[in-house]
Specification:
Layout: H1 14-29, H2 40-53, H3 61-78, E1 82-85, E2 96-99, E3 105-106, H4 108-118, H5 124-133
Length: 147
């Protein structure tokens, strides 16, 4: 499953990328993505399928970014916050992040790339729960993964 994103990636394009991956997931794998926190499990299963197929992050970059945008939309709809440009000194998989109402940065696109690379060792559901509970973000961006 791959979605072509129209560059340049901007914070305002995240909802459009999310909508595109919702449609693609329904069309290609009958996956129901309804912007609920429960649908995070579906995203994890899809990304785990990519991992099992041995695809690289480069091969699936557009789809991974789109799934990250979808996760970010779950965050903004259920926790709050808004898409913003990532700080230049903060390497991320995409040039934008979700800034939560308490000013913490949330990196849902990085979550997806990390899940592809590390499998179940990276729980997107747990990362979302930490964001919802006011905990620290994944920390992946700070460690330089996923640029």
């Amino acid at each position: 499953m791959q979605v072509q994103l129209n560059p340049p990636l901007e914070p305002g394009s995240a909802p459009h990328a999310a909508a595109a991956i919702v449609a693609a997931a329904a069309d290609i794998s009958d996956a129901e993505l309804d912007y609920s926190p429960e649908s995070i499990d579906v995203v994890e299963e899809i990304v785990d399928g990519f991992r099992a197929e041995g695809v690289s992050r480069e091969e699936m970059a557009d789809s991974l970014v789109a799934f990250g945008c979808y996760l970010g939309e779950i965050v903004t709809r259920h926790i709050g916050g808004a898409w913003r440009h990532a700080p230049a000194d903060h390497p991320t998989a995409a040039p934008f992040v979700v800034v939560l109402p308490d000013a913490r940065e949330c990196h849902p696109i990085d979550w997806v790339f990390s899940r592809l690379e590390s499998g179940a060792a990276v729980s997107i559901r747990d990362l979302y729960a930490a964001a919802a509970a006011g905990g620290a973000d994944s920390g992946f961006a700070e460690e330089g993964a996923h640029g």
